[in-house]
């Protein structure tokens, strides 16, 4: 029988140079969609220790959303850089370029989820 409670400190795994970024972030895939099932492709929890980053990268026809739970950092999205902090929601449009750097002195904690979209649908729905 499964334990009634899990703790993230036991579930998080290191990801070195995520998307070509710096250092090792920690991540745990909370949810992954089964083939053919509706809903989000995945939901991840991620921790970027100070000085680490998710490198600048692009996805295909999907929309990836970052929700900052704690900490702060410098976000890059489609040629713009801006600060993010607790409660900020950043929607990365299909085919857009994005990345995130923890340039602070404490951990940056994120919830990341991805929604697959039909080709061309993202431009109509993203807002």
- Element-level helix/strand string: HEEEEEEEEEEH
Low-confidence region ranges: 119-127
* First-last Cα distance: 44 Å
What is the CATH architecture assignment of the domain at 23-109?
A: Sandwich
Radius of gyration: 15 Å
CATH topology of the domain at 23-109, which one? Jelly Rolls
**CATH structural class of the domain at 23-109:** Mainly Beta
Q: How many helical elements?
A: 2
Helix fraction, binned, reads under 10%
**Major sheet: arrangement of strands:** 1-2-3-10-5-8
Kindly report the average pLDDT value: 86
The count of strands amounts to: 10
Q: At the fourth CATH level, what is the homologous superfamily of the domain at 23-109?
A: Jelly Rolls
Structural class: mainly beta
**What summary fits the major beta sheet?**
6 strands, antiparallel
- Beta fraction: over 45%
**What is the approximate shape?**
globular
Structural write-up:
Mean pLDDT is 86; it is low at 119-127. The protein is built from two helices and ten strands. It has helices at residues 8-11, 121-125; strands spanning 13-16, 24-32, 42-48, 53-58, 62-70, 73-77, 80-84, 89-92, 97-101, 108-116. By secondary structure, the protein is mostly beta strands. The strands form two sheets. It has a six-stranded antiparallel sheet with strand order 1-2-3-10-5-8. Strands 4-9-6-7 form a four-stranded antiparallel sheet, with no helix packed on it. The protein has a domain at 23-109: Jelly Rolls (Sandwich). A hairpin with a 7-residue loop joins strand 1 (13-16) and strand 2 (24-32).
């Amino acid at each position: 029988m499964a334990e009634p409670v899990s703790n993230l400190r036991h579930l998080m795994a290191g990801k070195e140079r995520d998307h070509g970024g710096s250092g090792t972030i920690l991540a745990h895939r909370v949810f992954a969609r089964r083939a053919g099932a509706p809903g989000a492709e995945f939901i991840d929890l991620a921790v970027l220790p100070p000085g680490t980053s998710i490198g600048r990268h692009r996805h295909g026809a999907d929309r990836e959303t970052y929700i900052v739970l704690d900490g702060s950092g410098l976000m890059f999205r489609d040629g713009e850089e801006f600060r993010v902090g607790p409660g900020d929601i950043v929607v990365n449009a299909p085919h857009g370029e994005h990345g995130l750097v923890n340039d602070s002195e404490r951990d940056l904690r994120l919830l990341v989820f991805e929604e697959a979209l039909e080709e061309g649908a993202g431009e109509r729905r993203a807002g």
